[in-house]
User: Which sequence fits this backbone?
């Protein structure tokens, strides 16, 4: 059964531990120069973000209206009085702890979005540190707290180990927002988290897969950074389906901390060389899916629509969506990298003494296959450069 799986925006207050202008702000020396967005890329990201918020996803009108009403009610329930806003009348000081843009096309778009929105032109004094090492991230966060930032934004490399940092931020009066990835900590340790529901992303993808009517599903699972929220959520659906006897995991590898396409290629090459029988590659980002396809092509194994191997990726890079459209890949799951605009709205409201959300806010995201994808979806929801139609 082929379909668009739409994850409509849901605003949820969790009650237990949870597990623009142009130009960018200054970037910490640990950051890579690739974080600096070109004006064109920033404009594209801003335009696509607006489209993603205002363009109705493929769904029935009644379902869209119902979900919108539910989201509005949930948002009202999660809006709470936040901690006292900073008294400074100058630029708002923001420290951002993020992953490096080289990690993936998703991360590149995310870093560029942060640089674009939290700019001096928009009233911010921002510094961003980009590293995939959790200990370096923690050290950067501690440094920003010592420097007296008003707001600390964190996309954690690992979901654990942050309690002391968050306690220090609270003691120093620094308001913390999580973005992209959740942290396993008490909800009282941060103001709000704007994240993708990684478990739902995984469930949506696996539900699609199990609807393809194969006689058996022999899956090569290629994970991202082990222990990250994205890896945990996207893996869980596959592991649960395997435990229920609905699919077989015949190889289980990882692209490492950098979500490397090269490492993913090696995982598939090893499976081919060992004679392992497989008909699905479930890669947890687009770069790793691309690396896996390279191994198949080198071995002369067909893939995509009508091929011997189903190819699944995540992140909605436009090159990946074009591969889905051409039938070279079969499925792609969205992970929206554009959180900066919404967090900036919250910060400005907080600085004005207004109520802002607390807890976890999930983004609207899609899952798409070859039969359902359109140019409009690629233009409105895709990220990074568009190579154009591949056939």
Assistant:
């Amino acid at each position: 059964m082929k379909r668009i799986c739409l994850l409509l925006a849901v605003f949820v207050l969790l009650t237990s531990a949870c597990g623009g202008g142009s130009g960018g702000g200054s970037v910490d020396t640990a950051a890579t120069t690739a974080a600096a967005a070109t004006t064109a890329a920033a404009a594209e990201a801003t335009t696509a973000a607006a489209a993603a918020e205002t363009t109705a996803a493929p769904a029935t009108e009644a379902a869209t209206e119902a979900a919108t009403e539910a989201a509005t009610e949930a948002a009202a329930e999660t809006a709470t009085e936040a901690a006292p806003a900073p008294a400074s009348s100058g630029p708002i000081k923001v420290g951002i702890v993020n992953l490096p843009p080289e990690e993936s096309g998703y991360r590149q778009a995310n870093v560029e979005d942060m640089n674009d929105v939290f700019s001096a032109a928009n009233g911010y004094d921002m510094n961003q540190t980009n590293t995939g090492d959790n200990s370096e991230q923690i050290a950067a966060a501690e440094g920003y707290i010592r420097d007296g930032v008003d707001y600390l934004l964190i996309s954690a490399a690992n979901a654990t180990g942050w309690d002391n940092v968050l306690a220090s931020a609270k003691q120093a009066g620094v308001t913390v927002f999580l973005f992209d990835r959740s942290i396993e900590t008490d909800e009282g340790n941060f103001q709000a988290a704007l994240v993708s529901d990684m478990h739902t992303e995984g469930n949506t993808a696996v539900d699609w897969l199990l609807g393809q009517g194969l006689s058996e599903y022999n899956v090569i699972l290629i994970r991202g950074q082990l222990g990250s929220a994205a890896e945990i959520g996207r893996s869980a659906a596959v592991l649960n389906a395997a435990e229920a006897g609905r699919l077989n995991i015949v190889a289980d590898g990882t692209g490492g901390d950098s979500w490397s396409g090269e490492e993913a290629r090696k995982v598939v090459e090893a499976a081919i060389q060992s004679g392992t029988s497989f008909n699905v590659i479930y890669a947890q980002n687009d770069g790793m899916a691309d690396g896996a396809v390279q191994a198949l092509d080198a071995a002369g194994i067909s893939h995509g629509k009508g091929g011997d191997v189903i190819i699944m990726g995540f992140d909605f890079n436009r090159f990946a969506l074009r591969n889905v459209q051409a039938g070279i890949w079969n499925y792609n799951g969205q992970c929206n990298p554009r959180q900066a605009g919404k967090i900036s709205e919250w910060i400005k409201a907080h600085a004005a003494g207004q109520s802002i959300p607390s807890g976890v806010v999930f983004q609207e995201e899609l899952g798409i296959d070859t039969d359902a994808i359109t140019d409009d979806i690629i233009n409105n929801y895709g990220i990074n450069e568009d190579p154009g139609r591949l056939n």
Summary: Residues 1-82 have pLDDT under 50 and may be disordered. Residues 19 and 182 are 6 Å apart (CA to CA).
